[in-house]
Specification:
five-stranded parallel sheet, globular, alpha/beta, 386 residues
Amino acid sequence: MKITNVRTFVVDCFRTNWIFVKVDTDEGLSGVGEGTLEYKEKAFEGAVEHIREAIVGQDPRDIEKIWHETYRDAYWRGGAVLMSALSAVEMALWDILGKSLGVPVSRLLGGRVNEKVRIYVNGWFSGAREPEEFAAKAEAAARRGVTALKWDPFGKSYREIAHADLDRALNCVDAVRRAVGPGVDLLIEGHGRFDLPTALKIARELEPFRPMFFEEPVPPDDLEALKMVHDRSPVAIAAGERLYTRWDFRRLFDRMAADYIQPDVSHAGGVMELKKIAAEAECRGLPFAPHNPSGPVANAATLQLAACCPNFCILEIMYDDVEWRKDVTNEQLTYADGCIAVPDRPGLGIEIDEEACLAHPYRPHTLRHYTGALTDIRPARTEFYF
C-alpha cells in the first residue's frame, strides 16, 4: 500500500475554521485527520503540502517512521503550524491502518480500558453576558445530564484584573455554582492571560466554589510561573493545550507544574504522541484530560485515545456547534449520563463529506480570547450534535 495524495479541506465553523486532512492510497483506502489551528489556516495548508511531497509513495502503515522523519527533517522543530499539520497527517495514517485491519484505533493502541468517557462541555454559555444568564444556561445544560462545565469568566482582562472585573467574574462563577449545585463540576478557564500575582489571587478567590481545576492561569511558555502558581494555589491547576510533543511535556512533568494535563491531538503530535504523553503522565500520577474544542474528526481521534488510557479522566467537547457539523462528516455519538460511548467502527470511525466541506469554505476569523467576545459565539440552539 502506498500513499498517493494528501489533501486539505478548510471548513468555516463560525468561530474558526476546521481543517481536515485526507490521505489517499493506491488501494482505495483513505484516512482522515484534523489539525484545526485557529487563525493560521493558510500556513497550515502550506505545511501539509511540504509533508505531502515527502510522504507520497510511502507505506501509510509505517506511522512511526513517517512521523519521525517528518519531525526530524523539519529542522526548525515544534511550533503550532508544523505540529498541527503533522498531527493531522499522523491521525489519518492511524485511520488507514485501522480500516485496513478492520478494527478501531483503540484496539491498535492496546485495547480499551474505557467503553465510555466522561465529558465536560465548552460553549454552553453562548450569548450569555450577565451572571443570571450564565446561570440559566448552566441549569439547562445540567438538565441534559451534563456533569461538568468549563468557561472563561474574565472578560477582557489581560495580565492583571481590576477589582470590579474580578468581582464580576466571581459573581458569574457563584451564580453558576448556585444554579447547578455541588453535583456538577466547574472548570475555570484562564486562557494563559494572567501574570503570576494575578493568577494566584484568582486561584485563591476561586477556592470557595470548589472548581475541578483552574486552566492555563499563566502564559503557556512560562513553565516556571506555572509551577509557582501550582505550588501555591488552593485549587487544582490544568495545563498543556499549547504544548507540543513529549519533549515540551517532559519539561512540565519534570517541574510537576500541573495537576491535570491537557494535550491536544490536533497539535501535540497526533494519536501516538498523545498516547506517549499520557503514559508519562500516568507514571507521575497525573490524570489525562485532553483538550478538544475542535471539530468532529479530532473528537473521534480523542475518543479512541480516551478509551485506551488508564489515567484518562475527562474529555472536553463543544456543547453545540454549527448546523452543518452533521453534514460535513458521518459523526454518530451516543450520549448518556454525562458520558459519550466510544465508537467501535474501524479506524477513527468517521468520514468527511468532501462536497459538504467545500460548501462551507474558509472564512477569516479574529482571535477573541482577550476581547470578551467569547461569550457571544453564536445564538443558542435547541439541537445538539451529541
